[in-house]
Structures are given as C-alpha cells and as structure tokens.
Specification:
Blueprint: E1 3-7, H1 11-22, E2 27-29, H2 37-44, E3 48-52, H3 60-68, E4 75-79, H4 84-92, E5 97-100, H5 105-123, E6 129-132, E7 135-138, E8 143-145, E9 150-152, H6 155-166, E10 172-173, H7 174-182, H8 190-205, E11 213-216, E12 220-223
Parallel strand pairs: 1-2, 1-3, 3-4, 4-5
Antiparallel strand pairs: 6-7, 7-8, 8-9, 10-12, 11-12
Helix pairs in contact: 4-8, 6-8
Length: about 230
C-alpha cells in the first residue's frame, strides 16, 4: 500500500481528499505542525507528496526545496493560483506535476496512479548504467556524471533522458514523450514538458552536455551523439 503525504492546511479539503484517496487504498497522512513539515516527512517516508502552495509560516515552494534537498520522492502541487509562473516555478523546483484548484478528483487520481506506476515500474527494472556522450548515466542513483562533475536528476528528468538516449539521433515527438511520461496526455500541460526538458538541459550544461539535447521546432527533441560514435 502506497503512503501519501498531503500537505494541506484547509481542514475541510484535507479530510475530503484524504477520504477519497483512502477509498483507493492509499494510506494518507497529514501534517501535525506546519513549522516542522520535514519532521513529519522524515517520519512518514511517503511514496508521494501532494502539497499546496499557500501554507502557514512557509509556502509550498519552501517545503518542496527542503524535500528535494533530501529526496527524489514524487511531488504534486495543488494550487488555487492561476498564474503560469507558479507552474513554472514548481517544475523548476523539481515537482512532478501541478494541479490547479478547483480540480476534478478523477484527474488527481489519474496523475497519482501514473506517477506511482512509472516510479514503481522504473524501480523494479534491472540496474542499468548507460554511456552517452562520454558521460555515465546511472539509473539506480538518478545521476549523470563525467570528468567534470556529477549531477542528480529527478525521476521525470531521468525518464526523459532515458527515452531520448535510447533513441539517440532520432527525433522523438512531444506527444510521444508526454504519453510515455504521464500515460494520458489529456491531463498534462504542454508547458510541463517544456519546463522539464529545459531543467534537464540546464543540469546537463553543468557537464557540458546540454547542447546535445536539441529542440526540433514543430517536431520534438533529439539526443545527439555524433561526436562520440
């Protein structure tokens, strides 16, 4: 049974979402003290975190940063804010998805199921290490390293890189990547993929590899390796 941590200060909404998630056989936990969110996170060790942006004391972005400093656990943001920068910031901080309030519960469930299925299936794959552009991609440690340094990737970033380098020198459409990532593209903002790819490319820039992930306007993305054949 998967454990979900719901970081939401609206008690009515918390109880409603908790009840419905429990009907899907999830264990759902809340926060006992919003000044000490990380204490509950460390104690519960959730399989997925659902977090509101507007919270007492510190906002959801703060706690996302804190969680990402210690864990790659999947994170879904819930927010009543409708400005695109909120979604962009959540993705840049390492969130896996963003849902705007009010939301359809079926959409939340679909996203939770897709993320947990992807992470669960991914973690059950045999340990794999790939070589790409002179770098080592370690799928067990969620990292890419070369002689310069090592960078850590989120599950989404690593999954995108995996799709691209498995079909290196071949254009993969945005639709194909979205479907592979989230199973059902109807529930995904096109901007979400853009943010994830840009964040991946920025991290690869630290290794001098960002230039090998190219955007093909109107077509998709391609991982090139022509200099390392």
């Amino acid at each position: 049974m998967f454990k979900l941590l719901l970081i939401e200060d609206d008690k009515t909404l918390f109880e409603e979402v908790k009840e419905r998630l429990m009907s899907w056989s999830y264990e759902v936990y809340g926060i006992s003290n919003f000044n000490k969110v990380m204490e509950d996170f460390t104690k519960i060790k959730p399989d997925l975190v659902i977090i509101d942006i507007q919270l007492p004391k510190y906002d959801g972005f703060h706690w996302c940063r804190m969680i990402r400093a210690h864990s790659n656990v999947p994170i879904i943001f819930l927010s009543s804010r409708d400005h695109p920068t909120e979604m962009v910031m959540s993705m840049q901080l390492g969130a896996d998805d963003f849902i705007q309030k009010p939301f359809h519960f079926d959409v939340l469930i679909a996203k939770i199921q897709a993320i947990l299925r992807r992470v669960h299936d991914y973690n059950n794959e045999p340990i794999a290490i790939k070589s790409w552009c002179g770098a080592t991609v370690d799928f067990e440690r969620n990292s890419v390293s070369n002689d310069l340094r090592t960078v850590e990737l989120t599950k989404n970033e690593l999954f995108i890189l995996k799709q691209l380098i498995e079909k290196k020198n071949t254009i993969i459409s945005r639709e194909e990547l979205i479907q592979a990532l989230w199973d059902d593209e109807r529930f995904v903002s096109d901007n979400t993929l853009t943010v994830n790819v840009n964040r991946l490319r920025k991290k690869l820039d630290e290794l001098g590899l960002g230039k090998y992930i190219e955007t093909k306007v109107g077509q998709g993305y391609i991982a090139k390796e022509e200099n390392f054949l």
